[in-house]
Design a protein that fits this description.
With 231 residues, this protein is α/β, with parallel strands linked by helices. The chain has a single domain, classed as NAD(P)-binding Rossmann-like Domain (Rossmann fold, 3-Layer(aba) Sandwich), CATH 3.40.50.720. It is built from 7 helices and 7 strands. Helix 3 runs parallel beside helix 4 and helix 4 packs parallel to helix 5.
């Protein structure tokens, strides 16, 4: 069975991806800050595959080590999905007013933590025909007012992914931009607004599965360019 680590797996895109991989026979190492929601998902998926959960914050070095150890215990690592993220200060502030301690926390979670987890798991990743997927955003490439903190962190993650792809010959490194989705984070960015027109996360998962199946060169890919037409 292939093995995947998925961070931020208790909700949104992470949860949808975990469900999809579980039903394809993957062994899963799942992370989230909310233990009850994570354990509920694990109970659901344990009926079809092996699931290990490590509740905690990816910004915590001890927690990242526990995730890497869990994958080591599973015997291999074929996929690392850095999905856990933080939006930062809300309502979304202009950069002129952005609280710098909050900005530092955004970078710690959205940039430093993914790289740190990659560093810890690289020996396992290099031993398999593996891939790293770092969840990106259109805010990484578009100058949306108010999105300077989150967007610049995702832009840094994109560049980090690109350089890793150039450096790692045996590991595919993908920055995956899912586009807008109907998630709690997206709702937090638009408080009080109706976001029901955004697609559900599970409708975006087939695009990532196509990316993983096709295994193109390392790089940045948008879900909209990987659309899977139902037959």
């Amino acid at each position: 069975m292939p093995v995947a680590i998925i961070t931020g797996a208790s909700a949104g895109f992470g949860r949808a991806l975990a469900r999809a991989l579980a039903h394809r026979g993957w062994t899963l190492v799942l992370d989230a800050r909310g233990a009850p929601a994570l354990e509920s998902l694990a109970t659901e998926l344990s009926a079809v595959t092996r699931v290990m959960t490590v509740a905690g914050d990816v910004a915590d070095p001890d927690h990242r080590r526990a995730l890497a150890d869990a994958a080591q215990g599973a015997g291999s690592l074929d996929l690392l999905v850095n999905n856990a993220s933080t939006l930062g200060a809300t309502p979304l502030p202009a950069l002129a007013d952005y609280p710098l301690p909050e900005l530092s926390a955004v970078y710690e979670t959205n940039v430093i933590a993914p790289l740190a987890l990659i560093q810890l798991t690289l020996p396992l990743l290099r031993a398999a025909d593996s891939a790293v997927v770092n969840l990106s955003s259109d805010a990484a490439v578009e100058p949306y007012p108010g999105w300077g903190g989150y967007g610049s962190a995702k832009a840094a993650l994109d560049q980090l992914t690109a350089v890793l792809g150039a450096e790692q010959e045996r590991v595919r490194c993908y920055a995956f931009d899912p586009g807008d989705m109907r998630t709690a984070m997206h709702q937090a960015a638009f408080p009080g607004e109706d976001i029901s027109d955004r697609p559900e996360p599970q409708t975006v998962v087939p695009a990532l599965l196509r990316l993983l199946g096709d295994r193109p060169p390392s790089g940045r890919y948008r879900a909209s360019d990987l659309a899977v037409t139902a037959s």
